[in-house]
Amino acid sequence: MSKFYTDEKNALIIIALLKANGISKVIASPGTTNMALVCSMQHDDFFQVYSAVDERSAAYMACGLAHETGEPVVISCTGATASRNYMPGMTEAYYRKLPVLAITSTQNIAKVGHHVAQVIDRSNKPNDTQRHSVTLPIVKDDEDFLECEIKVNQAILELKRAGGGPVHINLPTRYSRAYETKTLPVCRVMNRFTFTDKLPELKGRVAVFIGAHREFSQQETKALDDFCSSNNAVVFCDHTSSYKGKYRLIYSLAASQDQAGAINDKPDITIHIGEITGDYSGLAMIGKEVWRVSEDGEIRDTFQRLKYVFEMDEKNFFERYTNPKHKQSDAYLKQCQSKLLDIRNEFPEVPFSNVWVASRTAAKIPADSVVHFGILNSLRSWNLFDLPSSVRTMSNVGGFGIDGGVSSLLGASLVNPKKLYFCVIGDLAFFYDMNSIGNRHAGNNLRIMVINNGKGTEFRQYNHVAAHFGEQADEFISASGHYGNKSPTLIKNYAQDLGFKYISASSKEEYESVYKEFLVKDSGGQSIVFEVFTDSDEESKALEMVRNIKKEFKSSAKSAVRKALGTKSINTLKKVLGR
Q: What is the pLDDT of residues 218-260, one digit of tens each?
């Protein structure tokens, strides 16, 4: 009777990626939980499968086979104590840097700890038996598929990284008896390159996407500028990206248009540098494939389109891909700048809100100052606008919590007491961290703007997943009514008692009459707290208005977006954006 592949998708992903990476040698030990994997390999002529009853011997056989061929070797075993017998051989492989891939099959992980026969806990491994270990899911949906795909790529890449060594995959099975799958799934094959490797060719339209990033040196900025000029590329940034070169685009306003789309501006390849981004709108500008550049060399599949990881510093990467013989071009940059200018020229008169405050204030932040933005409404609102080029900006997007924004500002302000340090932060985030302005080291160079709407207005935005709860969200989800419920005196008295100058505004007119006091460098030797009272509904209305400046998005464009991104990425994008 003819047999083909199992229908267990986690096993199919392993097989597909082993074949894509040219890993063909397998030593299989007998058992039931590894039957789906081994029988599938047995009926694929690509694999050279050897049998070893004793798992201890199998692991040592793999050491010899890997050493003699210089190739990775797979070992496969069943559940119970079978995997324990791999440890001596895996230890040998670890200290000799031999690429042995141990795939230990198991029943559903949920059974661990419940006295189920032949189910043991493999969550803790001796450090010197594996360089990397992953446990795969049983694949039931697209998210499981993505998780499995990433983990198997990670495991295979670790076999040869930094000299190589043994790696472990824990593979659960559902004991399927179906072996009728004739074709393997199409899986992304991820590759890692170091500085000494021959690098892949860069083709098509290119954009650099920068998440949170330390300050760029002049040499690093020049390397990125030269790269963009040589490759007709642009750099999509937000106020945590730190890049201030010629090709910088604060593109959130254009990218966030709900109905206009960004399909004409999308690159083919996105070069991803930096860390976590708070610019959710920027996800709309990610290309068909992503190249991640970072000295840590880790798999960071932020956009679910990762193809290559370059384990090298960014300056070296950009210099390697800069060809002085290429005709220099700024065509892509000018196209994006033109679209952005077109949208800015139609910027509406929004209600009194964080967005409105940003629109009136961003360009007037004093030169050479520093601005810290709170998570998330403040960062998003101010990402819609450029600030003066000499102003440095940041936000706590690493842990993405609201709990330490003012303390981070305080710590930064201690470095240069003569420089102004601004903060734009929501009321909940301020009250979370308000004790920090009472620190005895606080100087007179702090400028704290508290956008007080009396709740976590993020959860009341028109496009948030909690929006359909309406006012019911106030009770628990958006935590309305705490901390004085927009008291006009609570923050005022606290700030003044600590020696801060206090100003406030509850309307556009009031704001216009006092905001210049907030921006002056000499405020009589006092730091300043500026409390801006806004309404949550107006905050949502303002956001909706700026995200719908352009409305020419046709059904054909929607189809093009869906075709370009794929259903999985569209759904993921909607989840991230809360739509």
A: 999 999 999 999 999 999 999 999 999 999 999 999 999 998 7
Round to whole Å and give the CA distance between 261 and 560: 10
Distance separating alpha carbons of residues 345 and 146, to the nearest angstrom: 41
443 contacts 527 by C-beta, under 8 angstroms: yes
Among 452, 536, 441, 458, CA closest to 498? 441
Q: What does the block give as tokens for 75?
A: 């070992």
The whole-chain average pLDDT of the chain stands at 94
Average pLDDT over residues 32-57: 97
Report the alpha-carbon distance of residue 445 to residue 412 in Å, rounded.
11
In the structure encoding, which two tokens stand for residue 275, read together? 């860390």
User: Residue 1's pLDDT is what?
Assistant: 56
Q: What is the DSSP letter of 84?
A: G
Single out the residue of 509, 549, 551, 516 nearest to residue 530, CA to CA: 516
How many whole angstroms separate alpha carbon 510 and alpha carbon 491? 18
Where helices occur in 265-388 by DSSP H, the ranges are 314-320, 331-344, 354-361, 377-382
Give the separation between CA 85 and CA 57, rounded to whole angstroms. Answer: 8
In DSSP notation, 435-460 reads GGGG-TT--S-EEEEEEE-SS-GGGG
CA 81 – CA 69 distance, rounded (Å): 29
Strands (E), 374-508: 392-395, 421-426, 446-452, 501-505
pLDDT digits (tens, 9 = 90+) for 78-132: 999 999 999 999 999 999 999 999 999 999 999 999 999 999 999 999 999 999 9
Rounded (10°) angle between helices 508-519 and 354-361: 50
Q: How many C-beta atoms surround the C-beta of residue 556 within 10 A?
A: 8
> Under the phi-then-psi rule, with left for phi > 0, alpha for psi from -120 to 50, and beta for the rest, what region is 479?
left
Contact 532, 504 (CB under 8 A): yes
> b vs e for 491-517, b when ≥16 Cβ sit within 10 Å of the residue's Cβ?
bbebbeeeebbbbbbbeeeebeeebee
Tell how many helices (H) and how many strands (E) occur in the chain. 18, 19
pLDDT of 261: 56
